[in-house]
Amino acid sequence: MTEISAQYNVKIVKYFVVAAMAWAVIGMTIGVILAAQLYWPVLNFDSQYIQFGRLRPLHTSGVIYGFVVNMLMGTSLYIAQRTGKCELFNQSLAWMVFWGWQLILLLAVISLPLGYTTSKEYAELEWPIDLLIVLVWVLYAVLFFGTLAKRTTKHIFVANWFFAAFIIVIAMIFVVNNLALPAYFMKSYSVFAGAQDAIVQWWWGHNAVGFLLTAGLIGMNYYFIPKAADRPIYSYRLSIIHFWGLVGFYTWAGTHHLIYSSVPVWVQNIGIVMSLILWLPSWGGAFNSAMTLLQNKQKLKTDYIMLFFFSAIIYYCLATFEGPLLAIRWFNMIAHNSEWVIGHVHSGALGWVGMSGIAMFYYFIPRLWGKEQLWSSRLIKWHFWLAHAGVLLYAVALWIAGIGEGYMWLAQSDNGELIYSFVEAMNFKAPWLFLRFVAGVLFVLGLVLMVVNLVKTVRSPAVLMAKEA
């Protein structure tokens, strides 16, 4: 690294980024295994430990807590140092956060296949692990905000606003949603019941997406997109509007998952209205990032890192269109609880989060290790097209499966009887589930090419001394 880089603690950042890349491959490979099990149930092998119900939370936890949280922790600590022109608040604390989080992930790998689960979406880990999560998260918050307090610059760069929001909101909603009464070791019961439990769960579940997979990634991208484009943020003012729009409206939108339920109608309506309002700040922020890249059109034509970032923005627009669409009652009646929702989630998770993470890895890892260029430009091109083929095939297959499935469930004869049986609905969507498996294989194959490319890059002798990350 250059003399300027030597002022900052980048070793801990390297560990977080490598862990994130490893968990991206692990978590998404488990997802491919699950997709295969849905089409070929025999792949459960009659084992209680690797059947769908136990591997599925391991997949979501591996992607969210392994890939995304490691990525956000590492990049947030780097960006806080660089934009504040200061060192980390405490280096020993940084290592405690890193190893504490890896311990949590290890405990998840052990406990979830053994069947220890709260059965709450994105919050399956049992109470002893939850307590450890809270402890490590508090240490992370102290580390991040302590670093901001040490800054030598007057202002706080907008990326840090988004990181601060994701740290604070995730802490708040995680603690409330996971309030439970322990029955014995590794078994607890929620303090909430019935409709209350559903409301609190989707307050958490939707905002885990909103503040981990959205606000945190936006903060990361507001730093790396201008770096990749060699241009400043198109509109710094619009980025602040983007921030307050998300913070103001996102936390209210979760109840659009509870339409046509026993939850009070006025609570459902709040979720509908807030979801529709979210279109404005979401697309405003996407416009800001896209215009930042388009300021350097010449580079955008040939730079695949910029193209990955641009693709992520397109999928962000798509995902933030689908969410409010799902909040509309007539569409919710057809699509909710069907494969369409899975397609929606993965157009965001693979398209927005995955593409953003991939772009960050390609841009950041060579610079962290002081390398001049990627080992293979051909491999990144292959990865780009494999990733796109994977996301598009995955989303389109499940959109078709979900809409068809939803109509078949609702179809009635003149006397009110259901026209289609459950088995007929399953037979209809079976080919699309196979395409979903193929799509997952393509996306993970692209990740493998990325790992090969980046490992070769790090091991290459060429050194970059001219440009900072």
UniProtKB/TrEMBL annotation:
Cofactor binding mode and count: Binds 2 heme groups per subunit, denoted as high- and low-spin. Binds 1 copper ion per subunit, denoted as copper B.
Intracellular or extracellular location(s): Cell membrane
Residues annotated to bind heme b 1; low-spin: H59, H346
Catalytic activity, EC: 7.1.1.9
Pathway: Energy metabolism; oxidative phosphorylation
Transmembrane segments: 12-40, 60-80, 92-115, 127-149, 161-184, 204-224, 236-253, 265-283, 304-321, 341-365, 385-410, 430-455
InterPro entries assigned: Cyt_c_oxase-like_su1_dom, Cyt_c_oxase-like_su1_sf, Cyt_C_Oxase_1, Cyt_c_Oxase_su1_BS, Cyt_c_oxidase_cbb3_su1
Tree of life domain: Bacteria
Pfam families linked: COX1 (PF00115)
Topology within the bilayer: Multi-pass membrane protein
Cofactor: heme; heme b; Cu(2+)
Family: Belongs to the heme-copper respiratory oxidase family.
Record-listed Cu cation binding positions: H206, H256, H257
GO biological process: electron transport coupled proton transport; oxidative phosphorylation; respiratory electron transport chain
This protein's UniProt keywords: Cell membrane, Copper, Electron transport, Heme, Iron, Membrane, Metal-binding, Respiratory chain, Translocase, Transmembrane, Transmembrane helix, Transport
Organism: Photobacterium aquae
Catalytic activity annotation: 4 Fe(II)-[cytochrome c] + O2 + 8 H(+)(in) = 4 Fe(III)-[cytochrome c] + 2 H2O + 4 H(+)(out)
Entry GO MF terms: cytochrome-c oxidase activity; heme binding; metal ion binding
Domain Cytochrome oxidase subunit I profile: 1-469
Residues where heme b 2; high-spin binds: H344
Protein name in the entry: cytochrome-c oxidase
Major localization class: membrane
GO terms for cellular component: plasma membrane
